Amino acid sequence: MATAPHEAGGPATTLRRGHFWIPGERVPTAGGTVQRAPMFVQWEAPVEVAHPYPLVLVHGGGGQGTDWTGTPDGRPGWATRFVEAGFAVYVVDRPGHGRSPYHPDVLGPMGAPFPYEAAQGLFLPDDVREAQTAWTYERGIGSDDLDQLVASMGPMPADLAESQRMDADRLARLLDLTGPAVLVTHSAGGPAGWLAADARPDAVVAIAAIEPIGPAFADFPGIGALRWGLTAAPIGYAPAWERPEDVEHADPADRRIPGLTATPVAIVTGGVSAFTGFAPQVVEFLTAAGARAEHLHLPDHGVTGNGHALILEANSDEAVRPVISWIRSRIS
Fold first, then answer.
1. Does residue 167 contact residue 195 with C-beta atoms inside 8 Å?
2. 6 within domain boundaries
C-alpha cells in the first residue's frame, strides 16, 4: 500500500502562512456587478525572516502557483526551499489561472486546453531524452507522473497582451502591499516581471527569471507574439514608441526601459533546455534596456541534466541553490 502524502516525511518547518486576493476590476453585467480577474496570493514566512526583501514567485503560462509548492513526485517545491533559506515568500496565481477565477464573459475567450503532447514537447522532448537526466519521472501518456504534471495546467487567456497587462497591474498592487521585493518568474511568467518593474521600478529589487520566454519579438503560434520586445503588452521605452513595429526596427540604444535601469537580472537556464539557446539574446536585450543582466546557466554551477521544468525536476533542490546564492548576493 502506498504511503499517504502526509506520512511521507520531510523536514519540519516552523513558519507563518496566509492568503489573500488582489481584487480585479468591478464590472457590471446583466446579473449584477462581478469582479474581473482577481489574483490569488498565498504567502509563507519563517518565524524569523533572515532577509530584508520578500520573494514573489510568478508561474508560467498555463500553470499556477502550485508549480512552486511541489513536484510531480510529491517533494516540496522551490517555495518551501526559499522559506527554509529565510525568505518571506509570496506565491501568486496569475489572473485567469489556478485559484484566480476565469469566466470568459468578463475576462475574454480562453485559449486552447493544454494537451499532454504539448507538455511532452516542452518539458521532456524525445531528442534530449538521454541528456535530460534530471527528468527521472515516467514520460508516457497514462503515467502517474505525467498526470501530475498536466493536471495543474489550464488554458491561458486568448489575448496574450491583455493577460500580461493584468499580470502587471495585479503584481504592481501586490508590491504596494509587500514593499520592495525580488521577483522570481518562470517561462511565460517572465514578461510579468519586466512589466512589473516598469510599473513599480522602486519596488523591484531584482529579478530571477527562470527559463523566460523569448527571444525578443518572438511569435508563438496559437499563443501570441512578443510584439514589444520581451512582452506582448506595451512597456515603457525611452524614447517612447507608439507602435511595436517601431520598437522592433529601432536601434538597440533607443530601446531603453527606465523601469529596468540598473535592476539586477539573472536569466536562469537548464543544461538541456531549448530555452538556453536564446538566453544570451535575452540578456543582450535586457542589458541594452539598462538592466544589469547576466546568464546563470545551471551546468556552470554543477547542476546538470535539466530541461525547461527545472523547478520541478528530480534535482530541483540542487537547482534552486545557485538561485538562492544569486539572490542573496544581490540583496546584501
1. yes
2. no
